[in-house]
């Protein structure tokens, strides 16, 4: 996910979150994990994503229908059950017990909402030159 700031006249800059969707190229190319990348032209109609100084992808914004919510996932702490009560036979009094049958839980927290998705596809050499020309003309 990438963020970009957009200015609207005299209003203060507003931060927008954009989802980078690489599903369209995932079966065509291998993108190594943690590969360095450069995302340029976020303020144009067709931003360019360069991965590992080799692979060039061209993007196109797609408006979402409604609002897309983005969540983060983390491991939740295990649930402890503490035995309490006035039982003389209670061998576990004051002890915490973890249920071994309990599956690992995940904690999900909202991060932000999105209104745009940036879908990428492979760029041809002609499209690379055309996009570079449009970006230099917009500067």
TrEMBL record:
One Pfam match: TFIIIC_sub6
Record-given protein name: Transcription factor TFIIIC triple barrel domain-containing protein
InterPro entries (alphabetical): GTF3C6-like, TFIIIC_triple_barrel
Organism: Ilex paraguariensis
Domain Transcription factor TFIIIC triple barrel residues, every copy: 12-123
Spans traversing the lipid bilayer: none
């Amino acid at each position: 996910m990438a963020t970009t700031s957009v200015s609207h006249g005299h209003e203060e800059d507003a931060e927008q979150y954009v989802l980078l969707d690489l599903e369209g190229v995932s079966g065509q190319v291998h993108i190594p994990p943690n590969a360095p990348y450069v995302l340029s032209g976020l303020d144009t109609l067709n931003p360019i994503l360069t991965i590992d100084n080799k692979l060039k992808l061209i993007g196109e914004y797609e408006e979402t229908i409604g609002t897309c919510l983005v969540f983060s996932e983390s491991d939740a702490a295990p649930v402890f059950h503490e035995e309490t009560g006035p039982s003389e036979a209670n061998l576990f009094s004051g002890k915490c017990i973890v249920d071994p049958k309990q599956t690992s839980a995940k904690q999900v927290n909202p991060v932000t909402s999105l209104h745009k998705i940036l879908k990428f596809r492979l760029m041809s050499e002609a499209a690379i030159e055309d996009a570079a020309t449009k970006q230099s003309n917009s500067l």
